[in-house]
């Protein structure tokens, strides 16, 4: 689970782009590091707000795939 949702990230970055608060002030207000605010701002500048979306990096293997992997390891004498 991630610490900050996409909506929270957008709120922080949008507040920065509105020009009312600095990155340091936003970090203090939202209880995070200025480095994190800077990272999000740079990501949005480079690739847009989609860069802030949470990416699911976890792979899912169903039972059949797991069985195939174990079978391969067994037949090829892998641990």
TrEMBL record:
Pfam families: DUF1153. InterPro entries: DUF1153, IS150/IS1296_orfA-like, Trp_repressor/repl_initiator, WH-like_DNA-bd_sf. PANTHER family: INSERTION ELEMENT IS150 PROTEIN INSJ. This is Transposase. It comes from Leuconostoc aquikimchii.
């Amino acid at each position: 689970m991630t610490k900050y949702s996409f909506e929270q990230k957008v709120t922080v970055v949008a507040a920065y782009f509105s020009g009312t608060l600095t990155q340091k002030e936003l970090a203090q207000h939202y209880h995070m590091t200025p480095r994190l605010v800077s990272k999000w701002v740079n990501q949005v500048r480079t690739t847009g707000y989609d860069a802030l979306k949470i990416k699911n990096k976890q792979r899912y293997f169903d039972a059949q795939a797991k069985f195939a992997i174990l079978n391969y390891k067994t037949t090829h004498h892998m641990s």
